[in-house]
Input
Amino acid sequence: MTALAVPAAAQIATPAPSRPRAAAPRPLPQQQAAEAPVQTSTSPAPIPSGSAPEGYKIGVDDVLEVDVLGQSDFKTRARVQSDGTITLPYIGAIPVKGETSVSLVKKIEGLLKAGGYYAKPIVSVDIVNFVSNYVTVLGQVGTAGLQPVDRGYHVSEIIARAGGLKADAADHVVLTRADGTSRKLDYKKLAQGGPEDDPSVAAGDKVFVPEVERFYIYGQVNAPGVYPIRTDMTLRRAVAQGGGLAPAGSIKRVKVTRDGQELKLKLDDPIKPGDTIVIGERLF
Output
């Protein structure tokens, strides 16, 4: 994201008139070190699934690109170090942890003006990789990956930002907190319930949308096959899902196999993932 201090058409970053090029002061040791190539960590940063929002707060290991309009020698890409700083030409190491791209633009402009390097610098700051403040979204969503957070988003908002649920998604999601605790959330309640049904997420949390679980139904039904198990799936609903009984089918001749064992279920007994239902023929 780019934040400009003033319109580009109105001002061009030029050296301050009071500091002619010929009379420029000798760089201090700190400035000489700042002009050297910036060292960045060689560890790869996760690839974000979207742009960091405007209020995203910069953290350790985020990668920033800082530029001054019209000054190609200033352009710098650097990873935020463990002490929360990055090193820029002329001004050296500056703390950036906790800043937003907008606030950092103002900070860098102020330092460049105070040092007499540019009279009216037009600074831009892009967060090209964010790794410090994000929620991981996995499973059956439109775009799995990292979602940056700049405030307390609800689970439903994070899923929406990840492209929503796929057609084969289960009707629940699993929220795992940074401390390892997990909570199963009903998707219908996420969409229609109140704040207690749609909790907020924080950096380091994971949202997992599992694939829907299925059962199998064969024999004397109109539409045998494999079907998803939705909330409160019973044998009665499973038969209806399979298109209802065929003319030769008998609801009294139903066999359910679960984990290799044959069971006798009543019509209102629940169906579990992996159950195989076989509808037999009625006796004439």
Q: What stands out?
A: Helices lie at 29-35, 101-114, 155-161, 187-192, 235-241. Residues 1-50 have pLDDT under 50 and may be disordered.
